[in-house]
Amino acid sequence: MALMITDECINCDVCEPECPNEAISQGAEVYEIDPGKCTECVGHYDTPQCREVCPVDCIPMNPDYRESKAELEKKYKRLMSAKS
């Protein structure tokens, strides 16, 4: 399941550089996570790095993008092969 950033975001800028898939970008009001790039850090880390650094705990699971660990691993492999 991809993650999302809620409107509780304070735009502190700490999550964006932590994302290994470059899925986080500044939106109109708060940072946003591209669900097509978010793998919850599967393939890179054991836990989502954006959640680790978020000071306000505003990064829940996105209920609109339910994915199994196997699906996240496939997405990770697809994203990495596209970088090559």
Automatic annotation (TrEMBL):
The keyword Coiled coil does not apply. Keywords: 4Fe-4S, Electron transport, Iron, Iron-sulfur, Metal-binding, Transport. GO terms for cellular component: cytoplasm. The keyword Iron applies. InterPro entries: 4Fe4S_Fe-S-bd, 4Fe4S_Fe_S_CS, PSI_iron-sulfur_center, YfhL-like. GO terms for molecular function: 4 iron, 4 sulfur cluster binding; metal ion binding. Residues 1-29, 31-64 form the 4Fe-4S ferredoxin-type domain. Its cofactor is [4Fe-4S] cluster. This is 4Fe-4S ferredoxin iron-sulfur binding domain-containing protein. The lineage of its organism: unclassified sequences, metagenomes, ecological metagenomes.
